[in-house]
Structure formats: structure tokens, C-alpha cells
Specification:
mainly beta; Immunoglobulin-like; 6-stranded mixed sheet; about 5% helix; hydroquinone:oxygen oxidoreductase activity; Cu-oxidase_fam
Length: about 575
């Protein structure tokens, strides 16, 4: 049997993830305990109808959400991306550490120039020391609104999970649906300075569900057997919103976050920020109940401005010999939209598994300390233009009041080939003008724009970063994602970070290891990581609107002295700007 869109080879393997069949891929060779898996992503337009409206969207292989990529720890992935649409594009493998393979990380103008119309690029990387739930998505403008899909890393062959073997595994992706063209939405926002128009619906596996008008037939239904354990791989691929999630009359056990195992804990409500993944065990009831159960998600939000304050619904349905057509359908209760305490309590439940088999390596001493403010700000309105941001300005966003401007050529290429004038190594280690970060905001809310400023780290430096929310234009949570690394969340709290007293409360024993963390609304979070992966690595807010407004920065991690501590040269097909 042949599968359209995938490279030909002598051996074709199909991996099954529960009731979902993984994308068929071609296995060509074994290496170092793993295998090489080849995929082909054809970027194509596809007509899709949701909420009784049809539009042409950008897809991978004509699928929305995109195809599932499945591999094992230790495997090498070779993914050829061919761009057949008018838009530029790049693909980011969200959460993959990309050890010495930074050319495959994907953010446009950071590690590569975007793939232009009619061009292709091969992403080639090995999955080292990781297993669990991640995802891939476009990393150019707002293209990831429709270009995203699950990336499932299974344990090595003959290895087991550190929890009960599930009966089936089910990826569930949260997304946002816009009736309008998302590129037009963000371009209008950047032009006028106003906040962008919000989405028209949230989705579960691409479907808005029955609580939206004209959407009853587009409902995700999870059919389960009684008395079984299911592994739900939850992925928040939404553009701009953190989400509460709950299944009526059911609790789940959290076992993994961002592809790292955690100490199991039971909850009936989850919070997932954009860019985060959470794997949970669902033990179904026995005998099968004479009822069905809503799976609901809606946003958490504390900031100013508008938001898509709607609810997406899927249905958990038991296989029942009675086949009840009119069975009652139960709804869960979700927290209030601004339930910050619920979010904080949930976040504090996460601890690394920290066993002999799955150890952690938290930096106990720190070589480099940084204090970054993260939040909103403004830009002055250009002359002869009317702007619709706060007090006639334009919305902006920044870290340490620096609104990061993307260069016109990729940072990694510029660094590797020592090109001058593309970036400057003077990103501030701390705010240039300290203030009461969570108190009364300063009168001047303008950010600093322009040059691409970066932080430079020696190879293998131990790094601590305090990320502090501000009250400028309203306190709100910011999900910060670090490329190329996982980090340990050693502390978090509300108010202003206290450098004298707060570090004594840090958890250096079993802190959760993540790639994306929400900076608490009106609070701070402390992370640590070991800078042992040379290259250029983006750190940014995973609200795409804040990313578009400049809430990002980049780290340059220098090469080490040994050959296996150096970044290799770029591949020959690396896109050109």
C-alpha cells in the first residue's frame, strides 16, 4: 500500500496511537538505537467549512489540524517541507531540544529564512532524551492558526511508561477558528495599533462543537469503553488564549507536562497555556453509565481588551449496549474567566518525577542571573495617521522594555558566518529603569524599538531568569516559551520578586521541567537551565498577538571547546532571504 505525500522506500511503517492512526512514515535505516523516519509536508490551500462559513486555509497535506508525527526516543526525523502556497512559511518542532541541530528549529528570521513559494527545506534532527507529547506548528506571522499538529514521542522500544499502560492514547488539540483571514487580522492590528479581532470559536481537534451556532455536526466525540484507562495527550495550539478544560463527572491523573514525566496528581480541572502540553490518564466508569459527558474548554484571562469568551465542547460517549439516543448529557463546571488563584494552585501541583530512571539536573549554583520584565507598552502614533491603541497610540509588547525587531536575515546564519550589523549583544540583563512593577504603572509606557538585541551566554553556563509581569496596560499572564532547551521552574509568586527573600523558597529538589511557562498575572516566575546547546535560541510569549508586538528576545549560546560541543555548518538547502 502506498500513501500519498510521503517518500518512497523499501519499508513503510504505520504507528498506532490508540484509536488514532499516526501519519504513515518511511523508515530507511537504523542508527544508534533508533531509526530514521522520513515525512513529507506539502503546504497547500484547502477549503474548510466551520460555523456555516467556508474559506481557503493553509494546511499541511490538506489536513486540519495537520498530520500526526510519531517517533520514538532516539529516532531521527527527516521532514521535507514543500511550500505550494503564496505565503512564506517555516515549521517549528515545539519542545524538541535540537541538540546541535539548531538549523532545524524553525522560527523564521531566527534560525532560518522562511520557505518561500515554490521552495522546500528538509528539517533533520534527532530526538535525544525526550519522550511524551509535543507538537509542531508554523512559525511565521499567524500561520500557525491552521498549520499545526501533534508530535508524539514514544518511549524506546521495550521501554515502558512510569504509569499504568493505557488501553488507548488519544491526542486532543485545542485551537482557535477565525472566520476572517488571520493574516489580514494581524496586519490590520499592526497597521492601526489596535488589538486584533478575536477568534470566532475555539476548537477541539479542529471542531468547534455544538455550543456555537451552526456547528452541531462539527463536534469532536471521544468514544470510550467502560473500565479502561485512556492516555489523553492534551495540546494547546490556540493562538492567544490560556484555557480551562474539564470533563463532566470525571477526574483525570496528570502524568506528564511538555514531554517530561511529573509526579502524578488528580484533578477535575486543567489549565493549559498556548504552547503547553499535558498528558493525563482518564479511567472510565464501569459499568457504562446511561449518559454522555461534555468536555469543555474556555479561556482564562485577566488583561485589558477583548477576548473570545466562548466555550468549545466535545462529547465523551461510552460504548453502551443499550444504545441510548436520548441519554442525558452532563456539563462540567469551569472556573471564572479571571480565576487566577485556580491557575496558580494548579501550576504549583507540578513536580518532576525525579527518579533514578528519570533523573533531573537542576543547576544548584548560578553563573549568570537575569531579571526580565514582560508586559505590554505602547508606540507613538506615526505622523499623519490615526491610531486605535491606548490614548491614540499603538499597542506594543516588550521584555525589559525592549520590543524585539526581527531582522531581514536569519540571526543564526548571521552569527555563524560572523556577519556584522544584524544584531547587537547588548540586551539588558535587568530593566533599564526599575519601577514598582505590579503597582502604579509609570506615565511613560513607550517601548524601545529597532535594533535586534541579544544575550550572549558562554557554553555550559548555568542560567537563572526571573520573569516579572508588569501592570502597564493591565496585569496578565504571559506564556513564555524557550527554544532549544527545557528549563526548571524553581519558583513563582505574586507581586514583585523579592531578591532577598524569595530565592530561599526555591524548589531545587524536584521542580517541574518545561519548555513553556505562564508568568503569573501580577507576579513572577523563576527558571533555571544549563546553556549546553550552542546556537541562537528564541524566547518569546506564546500569545501570538504579543509576539507580533515584540515580546521576544534571543540567546546566543557560544560553542564549547570539544567537537561535540560545537554547532555544525548549515545544510545546503537552508532557505535564503
Amino acid at each position: 500500500m502506498r500513501f500519498p505525500g510521503f517518500l518512497s522506500s523499501a519499508v513503510t511503517v504505520i504507528l498506532f496511537v490508540g484509536c488514532f492512526m499516526a501519519v504513515p512514515e518511511v523508515v530507511t535505516a537504523k542508527h544508534g538505537g533508533g531509526v530514521t523516519r522520513h515525512y513529507k509536508f506539502s503546504i497547500r490551500m484547502k477549503n474548510i467549512t466551520r460555523l456555516c462559513r467556508s474559506k481557503s486555509i493553509v494546511t499541511v497535506n490538506g489536513k486540519f489540524p495537520g498530520p500526526r508525527v510519531v517517533a520514538r526516543e532516539g529516532d531521527r526525523l527527516v521532514v521535507k517541507v514543500v511550500n505550494h502556497v503564496p505565503n512564506n512559511i517555516s515549521i517549528h518542532w515545539h519542545g524538541i531540544k535540537q541538540l546541535r541541530s539548531g538549523w532545524a528549529d524553525g522560527p523564521a528570521y531566527i534560525t532560518q529564512c522562511p520557505i518561500q513559494t515554490g521552495q522546500s527545506y528538509v528539517y533533520n534532527f534527532t530526538i535525544t532524551g525526550q519522550r511524551g507529547t509535543l507538537f509542531w506548528h508554523a512559525h511565521f506571522s499567524w500561520m500557525r492558526a491552521t498549520v499545526y499538529g501533534p508530535l508524539i514521542i514514544l518511549p524506546r522500544r521495550n521501554e515502558s511508561y512510569p504509569f499504568i499502560k493505557p488501553y488507548k492514547e488519544v491526542p486532543i488539540l485545542f485551537g482557535e477558528w477565525f472566520n476572517a483571514d488571520t493574516e489580514a487580522v494581524i496586519n490590520q492590528s499592526l497597521q492601526t495599533g489596535a488589538g486584533p479581532n478575536v477568534s470566532d470559536a475555539y476548537t477541539l481537534n479542529g471542531l468547534p462543537g455544538p455550543l456555537y451556532n451552526c456547528s452541531g455536526k462539527d463536534t469532536y466525540k471521544l468514544k470510550v469503553k467502560p473500565g479502561k484507562t485512556y492516555l489523553l495527550r492534551l495540546i494547546n495550539a490556540a493562538l492567544n488564549d490560556e484555557l480551562f478544560f474539564s470533563i463532566a463527572n470525571h477526574s483525570v491523573t496528570v502524568v506528564e507536562a511538555d514531554a517530561t514525566y511529573v509526579k502524578p496528581f488528580v484533578t477535575d480541572t486543567l489549565v493549559i497555556a498556548p504552547g503547553q502540553t499535558t498528558s493525563v490518564l482518564l479511567k472510565t466508569k464501569s459499568p457504562a453509565p446511561d449518559a454522555a459527558f461534555y468536555m469543555l474548554a474556555r479561556p482564562y484571562f485577566t488583561g485589558m481588551g477583548t477576548i473570545d469568551n466562548t466555550t468549545v465542547a466535545g462529547i465523551l460517549k461510552y460504548e453502551n449496549p443499550k444504545n441510548l439516543e436520548n441519554a442525558p448529557l452532563f456539563k462540567p463546571s469551569l472556573p471564572a474567566i479571571n480565576a487566577t488563584n485556580v491557575v496558580a494552585n494548579f501550576s504549583n501541583m507540578f513536580k518532576s518525577l525525579a527518579t533514578n530512571k528519570f533523573p533531573i539536573n537542576v543547576p544548584q549554583k548560578v553563573d549568570k542571573r537575569f531579571f526580565f520584565t514582560v508586559g505590554l507598552g505602547t508606540n507613538p502614533c506615526p505622523k499623519n495617521q490615526t491610531c486605535q491603541g491606548p490614548n491614540g497610540t499603538k499597542f506594543a509588547a516588550s521584555m525589559n522594555n525592549i520590543s524585539f525587531a526581527l531582522p531581514t536575515t536569519a540571526l543564526l546564519q548571521s552569527y555563524f558566518f560572523s556577519k556584522n550589523g544584524v544584531f547587537t549583544a547588548d540586551f539588558p540583563d535587568s530593566p533599564l529603569h526599575p519601577f514598582n512593577y505590579t503597582g502604579t504603572p509609570p506615565n511613560n509606557t513607550h517601548v524601545i524599538n529597532g535594533t535586534t538585541k541579544v544575550e550572549v551566554l558562554p557554553f555550559n553556563a548555568s542560567v537563572e531568569v526571573i520573569m516579572q509581569d508588569t501592570s502597564i496596560l493591565g496585569a496578565e499572564s504571559h506564556p513564555l516559551h524557550l527554544h532549544g532547551y527545557n528549563f526548571y521552574v524553581v519558583g513563582q509568586g505574586f507581586g514583585n520578586f523579592d531578591p532577598k527573600n524569595d530565592p530561599s523558597k526555591f524548589n531545587l529538589v524536584d521542580p517541574v521541567e518545561r519548555n513553556t511557562i505562564g508568568v503569573p498575572s501580577g507576579g513572577w516566575v523563576a527558571i533555571r537551565f544549563q546553556a549546553d546547546n550552542p546556537g541562537v535560541w528564541l524566547m518569546h510569549c506564546h500569545f501570538d498577538v504579543h509576539l507580533s508586538w515584540g515580546l521576544r528576545m534571543a540567546w546566543i549560546v557560544l560553542n564549547g571547546k570539544l567537537p561535540n560541543q560545537k554547532l555544525p555548518p548549515p545544510p545546503s538547502d537552508l532557505p535564503k532571504c
